[in-house]
Amino acid sequence: MRDSLTKKMPERDIDIFSCLQCGYCRNVCPAYGQFGWESNTPRGKMFAIRASKSGMPLMDMVTPGVKLGPEFFERLYHCTSCGACDEVCHVNIHLSNLWEEMKEWMIYEKGMKPKPAHRALYDRICDPKKRNPFHDDKDPGKDSLEKRGAWLPPDVKLSDKPEVLFFAGCTSSYRLQPLAQASVRILAKADVPFTILGSDEWCCGSPLLRTGQTDVVKKELAKHNVDVIMKKGAGTVVTACAGCYNTLRGDYPKIVGKLPFKLYHITEYMDKLLKEKKLVFTKEIKKKVVYHDPCHLGRHAGVYDAPRNVLKAIPGLTLLEMERNRNKSRCCGGGGGFRIGYTDISEDIAVERVKEAKATGAELIVTPCPFCVVNLNAGAKKAGIDIKTVDLGQLVMQAL
């Protein structure tokens, strides 16, 4: 079931030996900005791969016999999966995908062991009583599968004939329930017949795909989630998690084939509802807000306008932009399994983004990604910066 990089090497050789070693990727890499070693950069990792292969070009002969061992494996995880390197690559190498493939190859073909924190994610997601990456030492039952739909507000009614299925995702189900609650209240306000999966919903698999632990996603998770979605009879799936959206949109078709339903991020669906006059704002929010583009929604999925359209439609709201925005946006540091593996460094990356946001004069940072909400707030707290990051859906609910 797994996609061995060994079999892909001829195809990847084109990318590997096309690298110009120009260093543009180094300038935008948030991990390099913290670690400071060339081996942490996309250019450095690409150099190591080239130097390890036979038939390397003359310019690389200064380092013959390089082995892709434990140190290189560790460097692969010094990556937030932000995709900024992809944006600036002059020869259009999909570097972020390559790092994921390399992790997978080194785990399944070379026998490398994931970091303990990442292996713990795997064990929890594989646990038939959990199917999510979270664990609470004080209350182990808090994150059980049977409680996955407990976030649903009692006054929100599900439809027996839904047009939409709301895929909540793990973080909104177990840690940031107000995000999921805001999303379904928005659907209810627009009179959209919808339902949820509850305990039938399993982790989408994003944490495992980003950390190279792909087997259970390809064998179980993707097929299960698609099957239970189809049983609900909804022709449209909406999710408020950038990670879930990117995984369903970009990874699932490679595993199960073309998706048998339409897929929207909640910001895209809200934009659609506003244009159809099914969603109408009735309250002013007189605040200056700055929008942060989540990497998995922006660079990876190309969704830039929809969330901004929603914010611009809120009466009284002033939308500001950071210097680095849209496809040039700076990562919050929370993606790709990076936060759980390198928490302090992840928050240091967030500090830099929060400083950039504060410099705009904004009163709030707004983003439609639960990971960005968590990490940017952690960065603000660490740096003592007085600015809060809020979920876009929660802000929308205030205006309805």
Folded structure, characterized:
- The chain has 400 residues and is α/β, with parallel strands linked by helices.
- It folds into three domains: 5-108, Fumarate Reductase Iron-sulfur Protein, Chain B, domain 2 (Orthogonal Bundle); 117-273, Rossmann fold, CATH 3.40.50; 281-399, Rossmann fold.
- It has helices at 5-16, 24-28, 30-35, 42-52, 70-76, 84-88, 95-108, 116-126, 170-174, 177-189, 206-210, 215-232, 242-256, 266-275, 305-313, 338-341, 343-358, 370-383, 392-399, and strands spanning 164-167, 194-196, 236-239, 262-265, 288-291, 318-320, 364-367, 388-391.
- Strands 2-1-3-4 form a four-stranded parallel beta sheet, sandwiched between helices.
- The radius of gyration is 21 Å and the shape is globular.
- The N and C termini lie far apart (47 Å).
Which oligomeric form is depicted? single chain
The name of the CATH architecture of the largest domain is: 3-Layer(aba) Sandwich
CATH topology of the largest domain: Rossmann fold
Strand order of the largest sheet: 2-1-3-4
What is the domain tally?
A: 3
Q: Quick one: overall form?
A: globular
Question: Roughly what is the average pLDDT, rounded to an integer?
Answer: 93
Main CATH class of the largest domain = Alpha Beta
N to C succession of SSEs: HHHHHHHHEHHEHHEHEHEHEHHEHEH
The total count of strands amounts to 8
Low-confidence stretches: 1-10, 57-62
Helix content: 40-55%
N- and C-termini, Cα separation = 47 Å
Structural class computed from helices and strand pairing: alpha/beta
Main sheet: strands, sense, barrel? 4 strands, parallel
**Over all CA atoms, what is the radius of gyration?**
21 Å
How much of the sequence lies in strands comes to 5-15%
